[in-house]
Amino acid sequence: MVIIISSPSGVGKTTIAKNLEKANFERIVTYTSRPKRSIEIEGVDYYFIGKEEFDELVKKDFFIEFSYVHDNYYGISKASLQPNTKHKILTIDVQGASKVKKLMPSVTTIFLLPPSFEEWMKRINKTQRNNFDVRLKNAIKELDAVWNFEYAIVNYSIDKTVKQIQTIVFCEQVKYKKNIENLINELKFNIKKYEEG
């Protein structure tokens, strides 16, 4: 199952995704053309590449989706979304979320909100954010996009938000009858076998 988590900058989507990794979730590391912050780790937070290299990968059809956000490019490789036994988490902006949802209608979309403006500013100030004014200006459009998401969660705390997302994933699996096709076929086979005697 693929889950998209979006939010304005500094609400905590990456922190939530990293905490979900402890519970059978795989956080997809995206590519970006922006410079690495001192607190970030290559291959863990992002794959940091230059704009020229990003352009080359676009030409090679490497990305399933890419967007220009906060004056930089961000993209998701096609290879990273190959199915395996873990739920995949994409922490992407609202533009990317919209594009991926069109390409993969079965993805589940979640929008994170801060509990208040004051708490949001505290969180932003704890991290090294470049283009702060651009990010705040973009946040107005991003907040309007909340209505395009299936779920919205107010990120009061990491533990609470992680539990809410785990509940959403469980409900989505039941709702869409995922992972039960083999069981249904086995039951039908055994009913026929029983009737035949």
Task: Give a topology summary.
Blueprint: E1 2-6, H1 13-20, E2 25-27, E3 31-32, E4 47-48, H2 51-59, E5 63-69, E6 72-77, E7 87-91, H3 94-103, E8 108-113, H4 117-126, H5 132-144, E9 151-154, H6 158-175, H7 181-196
Parallel strand pairs: 1-7, 1-8, 2-7, 3-4, 8-9
Antiparallel strand pairs: 3-6, 5-6
Defining key terms:
alpha/beta, 197 residues, 5-stranded parallel β-sheet, 20% strand, 9 strands, 4-stranded mixed β-sheet
Written overview of the protein:
The N and C termini lie far apart (40 Å). The protein has a single domain, classed as P-loop containing nucleotide triphosphate hydrolases (Rossmann fold). The chain has helices spanning 13-20, 51-59, 94-103, 117-126, 132-144, 158-175, 181-196, and strands spanning 2-6, 25-27, 31-32, 47-48, 63-69, 72-77, 87-91, 108-113, 151-154. With 197 residues, the chain is α/β, with parallel strands linked by helices. A five-stranded parallel β-sheet has the order 2-7-1-8-9, with helices on both faces. It has a four-stranded mixed β-sheet with strand order 4-3-6-5.
